[in-house]
Structure formats: structure tokens, C-alpha cells
Amino acid sequence: MQFDDQNRVGKAKRRALVNQTEAKNRVELFRHLPQYDHGSQLPNLESKLFQLDSVHPAVFKVGLRYMAGDISGVNARCTEMLRALQEAIIDYSTPPEKVLIRELTAKISSYISFINECRPLSISMGNAIRFVKRRIAKLPLSHTDVEAKTALCSDIDRFINEKIIIADKVIVGHASTKVRDGDVLLTYGLSCVVEMILLSAHDVGKKFRVVVVDSRPKLESQALLNRLIAKGLSCTYTHINAVSYIMHEVTKVFLGASAVLSNGTVLSRVGTACIAMVAHAFSVPVLICCEAFKFHERVLLDSICCNEIGDPGALATVPGRMDINYLENWTNEENLQLLNLMYDVTPSDYVSVIVTDHGMVS
Predict the structure, then answer these.
(1) 178-307+342-361, superfamily in CATH?
(2) Structure confidence by residue, pLDDT tens digits, 237-272
């Protein structure tokens, strides 16, 4: 939804279950995206725990965890959402003289709206939702409620198993063949499938070094670094501002993705495009590891029209450095806006190979 359309935003607010406070220092260029005052929504939503009868407890719990940032990573977010919908389907009962296919689809849509209010859906989560709705639409009318719900839950289990769990194992099998002794592999952010590739190559005895690149404000690569070191891998840790200094040592770049679009563009955590472009300048191959369910027919040419804006206040503080507080009261500065974009877009020109569960796409 375009959030600079006042009429549509007004209607959405009247339907919304989560009361969001608009940010005071909104960035004009991104007015079409939701910009909320972070920090106030979570306590407000928690206080409604026993008031929202229209939201299933499992869906409510997932929404809270999305808003709190407890669930990160596209695969984890998608899996948790599907598990919550599974619980909601099991507990659902069709009203008298109603048809399960229509009523359940409407119920699922209301749950998805709630989840989207807690945190905007990723493109791959949209693909998973469409899968669930298609399976509901294809349910035979002759099925009883119990049979229909059993079939749906089985379909969701199959989707998680085939499209995420098995898909990751297949990607690891493909990508591990590209790792050779003496390689220096660079990765950025926290991608579960890239972590599995590195650990798999190490387990079979390949000798290589990993360069882990990180960036503020989340510094999520530190968790990956700790796990790799614990498994005995040789690692180098650096921040994204120093990537051009270390790229001359690197032989291959392994990156995760939130989505791959129909024009070959890769949507991933902000900073990925920077890494890919620096690697391209140094003639280092860039391998994007992405499950097929994250592919989408949409086309994006930039990261402005479609994105997610994180907490701008996170940029004003430096973890572990209480003395750096120059932007402590930045919200009181009328002419100062901080922009914390979550994703960026990498053109296909800077990608060498996309490794999927259906094979490698050059």
C-alpha cells in the first residue's frame, strides 16, 4: 500500500488492530512507506493480549515476536508464520450454514493483515501465503472439516519440509562443490544457508578461510562469527566500510537473499549490493544462495519504491559505547531525519551465479 495516499491510509488505520504512531521526523523521499515511532507499539499490543478475540493466540504470539525482533531471517519468519497458521487452522470451526473454503480464506487473510501490521511481510512470505490459499481453494467440497484441516496441515508441513529444509540441503550440496582448498570466502550478514555451506565444506576437510563482514546497527554477523569459530573455522571479522581493503584477498563471495526477482535482481539485507559491486570491481565471483520459493515475478529497479524501514533510533547509538551520544535527542531536531533501510537491490550484472535447489543459474 502507498502510505502517501491519505484516503487509503485512513481506511487501513480504521481496520488496524495495532495502533501505530507515525514518526515525527519522517523522511520525505520515503513517505510512501510506513514510518512509525518505534518502541511504543510492543507494550501497547501486549496489553491487548486478552482483548483481540479475532486473532488466534498462536498468530498473536508470532506477531509479537516479529515486532520485538525475536525472529529474524526470511526462512525463520516464514516457518514461524506457517506454523502459527497451522495451529489456527486446527482450532478453526466453520460457522453454521457457511462454507469452509470461503470462511477460512477470509480468516487467514485477517491473520495475515495482523502479522503485516506487526512487521511488513517479506516477498517469500507472500509466496507461502498464496500457496496456503491455493490449497484451501482446491479442497474438495465433499471433505468434512476434519478432513480438510488435516489435508491443509499436511500441505503446510510438506511446504516447510520441501521448500525450506530439503531445499537448503540441496543448495548446500551444490554450493559446497565451489569451495576449494586455499579459498578465502567472504560472506555478509547472517544467512542460515551460507552458514550451512561453510560448515559442510569444513566438515569434509576442505581448508579455507572465511571473511565475515558486518554492519551497524544490528551487527548480526557477530552471531555467525561466533558459531564458525566454535566449529574450528579460520575467520577474519571486519566492517563493511573496510570491504574494499580486504577484497583483494578474497576468492569467492557467498551471500544470502530475501528474494530473487524476474529481472535477475536480488533483494537482500542492506549492504549486499555494496559487497557485490566491490567484488565485481575486483573480479571476484559472487554466488547468491537462494531457495526457489523466494523467486518472484515482480521487477524492481531500485530499493526506494519497495522496502522496509527499521528503527531510525538504532542508528543514533553505538553498542558498547555510552560515550558516543551526539544524536541522543535527534528527534527534537526538526531538520534532521535518520533513515534505516532494511533491504537493498543488487542488479544481476554483479551476480555470477544464483545457487538454488533446482540447480545453479548463471
Answers:
(1) Translation initiation factor eif-2b; domain 2 (3.40.50.10470)
(2) 999 999 999 999 999 999 999 999 998 899 999 999
Q: For residues 147 and 94, what is the distance between their CA atoms, to the nearest angstrom?
A: 13
N- to C-terminal Cα distance for the chain? 34
What is d(CA 263, CA 99) in angstroms, rounded to the nearest whole number?
40
Q: What is the DSSP string of 308-354?
A: -B--GGGGG--TT-TT--TTTTGGG-TT-----B-EEEE-GGG-SEE
pTM: 0.88
Q: What angle do CA 88, 94, 95 make, to 5 degrees?
A: 125
C-alpha to C-alpha distance for 304 and 297, rounded to whole angstroms:
18
The letter for the amino acid at 274 is C
Report CA 176 to chain centroid distance, whole Å.
Answer: 24
Tell me the pLDDT tens digit for each residue of 91-121.
888 888 777 788 888 889 989 988 888 888 8
Nine cell digits for residue 25: 521526523
Residue 13 CB coordination number (10 Å): 11
Q: How many CB atoms lie within 10 A of CB 15?
A: 9
CATH architecture, domain 6-23+31-167: Up-down Bundle (1.20)
